Amino acid sequence: MKAEIKVALVGNPNTGKSTLFNLLTGLNQKIGNFPGVTVDKKTGFCNLPDGRRAEIIDLPGTYSLYPKSRDESIVFSVLADRVHEAPDLVVVILDASNLKRNLLLYTQVADLKIPLVVALNMMDVAKKDGISIDINSLSKKLGVPIVPISARRNEGIDELKKSISYANKFALQQDSIDVKSIAPQLVDAIGEELQVDNPYFALQLAHQHETLTFLSERESSRIEELELAHNFHSQKAQATETIARYNYINDLLYDTVTKQEAAQEESTSNRIDKVLTHRIFGFFIFFGILLFMFQAIFAWSAYPMELIEKLFIWMQTGVHNLLPAGPLTDLLADGVIAGLSGVLVFIPQIAILFALIAILEDTGYMARVTFMMDRLMRKVGLNGKSVVPLIGGFACAVPSIMSTRTIENWKDRMITIMVTPLVACSARLPVYTLLIALVVPDRNLWWIFNLQGLALTGMYVLSLVSAIIVAWVMKYILKARERGYFIMELPVYRMPRWNNVLLTMFDRAKTFVLQAGKVIIAVSVILWVLASYGPGNNFEQIEKKYKQPQYGQIMKPTEVQHAIASEKLESSYAGYLGHAIEPAIKPLGFDWKIGIALITSFAAREVFVGTMATIYSVDGNADEIQSVKQKMGSARNAETGKPTFTLAVAFSLMMFYAFAMQCASTVAVVYRETKDWRWPAVQFAYMAVLAYAASFITYTLLK
Amino acid sequence: MKKLSQLQIGKTGIIKEFTDLEMSLKLMEMGCLPGEEIKVERVAPLGDPIAVNVSGYMLSLRKQEASTIILQ
What we know:
The structure holds two protein chains of two kinds. Chain A is built from 31 helices and twelve strands. Chain A is of the alpha/beta class. In chain A, the strands form three sheets. In chain A, strands 2-3-4-1-5-6-8 form a seven-stranded mixed beta sheet, with helices on both faces. In chain A, strands 7-9 form a two-stranded antiparallel sheet. Chain A has a two-stranded antiparallel sheet with strand order 10-11. In chain A, helix 12 (about 280-320) packs antiparallel against helix 14 (about 345-365), helix 13 runs antiparallel to helix 21 (about 500-530) and helix 29 (about 645-660) packs antiparallel against helix 31 (about 680-700). The longest helix of chain A has about 40 residues, at about 280-320. Mean pLDDT of chain A is about 85; it is low at about 620-625. Chain B is an alpha+beta fold. Helix content of chain B is about 20%, strand content about 40%. The model of chain B has no long low-confidence stretch (mean pLDDT about 90). The interface of A and B includes residues 278, 384, 486 and 489 of A. Strand 12 (about 490) of chain A pairs antiparallel with strand 5 of chain B, so a sheet runs across the interface. Chain A: Belongs to the TRAFAC class TrmE-Era-EngA-EngB-Septin-like GTPase superfamily. FeoB GTPase (TC 9.A.8) family.
């Protein structure tokens, strides 16, 4: 479906831009990538009243064309890239209640001379604040159509669509400031050299040429030379420009906007803030909300997760029953489907986590959390904004690492990415519950504290503490690329937009499945092959051995099957691998069977339970934790005859799972976010060292 | 020479100038302009950052950043 007109949405953060995008495109949207960068590109289609089809691009919210974060840097590139992306029309969304600051971005975009339509959002809020805007006169002064809308109430959208379809092909907006006077010779020189006839475009090239991907290296270095020749000072030029723009805006608003001197009545937002960011209650409320979130993630997802598991078991047996037995069927059922179920089972948790985070962000509360936590986080080398990914890390590191993009400061963002996988994610939970149930007695301490619950809480606290310590260490290792700052809008509190919450939930779940799914399927297929085949004719000999009549007499048929399965595993490639790493993991108290589980867990931690189930040959599926537990409990060391899983071994194993980067999806997403293999490599290495050391110490102390 | 970081909660001042060019770019984009009225609304529970009311909306910034804003 080819679009006949390309429309870009531009606006400040918190202006209702994404709400408008959702209104225009409905569910008809997709997320892609901008070429060369990992910023998500949200596009959708919208039918215009004149019958044409418009492709709408939702550009990241920004306060100006001068970028402060990775997301923001995309705005100018898209507007300026004439070859690939450049839109035919820009819709600038302005917040009517905050027109002055919003108009800064408008004047910058207008000066690029792309045809424009202004959508004036939040007229209702402005009215409430006693602001009245003479839209006709403002529109005449700017030279562009202005459409008042209310994105939340779905008002004015049809008029906006009309305006888009009747918009001119040529830019008719008035000039705002005298751009040339900022750097007259340089603007001319760049214009001549690169055949740019728009002076503001030329000026922006001077400011941003280093990061623009559509410029060739030769063009960029030529601009650099011109800047030196004309003595161009980027920051000073920017300051001059911003002040000139605000002067223009002040003139503009002087007789078009009137504000009633509001009776000094305290705003609702302010009153809510007094409670939510209160010196003492503020933190209590925050931790209360966190507790509620975890409860919700675990409680609400239990039922859908069970359904998904059942569905996949049903599919697995279905495939086994319908298709002829053979290696291909096994690969499909035990490799691909089993691998898929390992990923998809986490969808409910991820969806719930993202819905809750979307609600917190939508209402404006998340901005207050970063406000309250900034000082604490800064002490350990993080940023107030790191709180969101760290909290998300309790569910899953993959989407949390994706959410670090809002952190403008490079160093803060990298440290957040590096420590987020240490936070105890939901995939560790089955491992912990299994091992704790195995070795920690189920009784109460001082009447109220359950010992098993305490052990589990301990693992969660340990994860946060370790993340904070590692962040603190990295603060001294990493060199800052730019100064960190924390200049952030605290938006007014609003009711969450449920549509938006649902869409975010849907988007994130989809991204997760596509990102993590590929890796997990690939790795589970490889593991399946390693565990199902062995060198030489090992397997045939095992089959032959158990065909001998004496086994049929002393063992039941199912027991024979189990014996075959576990012997096959030992002589499979995976079994050989387990034996191969045994010397390395012996100091940690692990034998070759645990070794296999460690190797398979590098695809994803939750594979541990499944592998244990296979190794200790349990009936049915991996979710029968009770029976896995029993088998593991009765497992004996062949040499000493003592139980394999002692307190020391179980805790050593938990330490290993707490620290080791056993998650292929996280490795993949860290690479995707950093675009450099060294980051995931360093992360993998430091976590492996921590895991080994922690396990070794734990085992030695408890032995 | 009074800085924004020295202003008490609930007090209002008028921005005169900035001591840091790089920081001033960001601040001006966010509506903190010379001549603009600025009011300290609240301080975060741990004493930093602060929240100010400027150009009709609420902005949060660290004390260190607030110290680059000189008031009249």
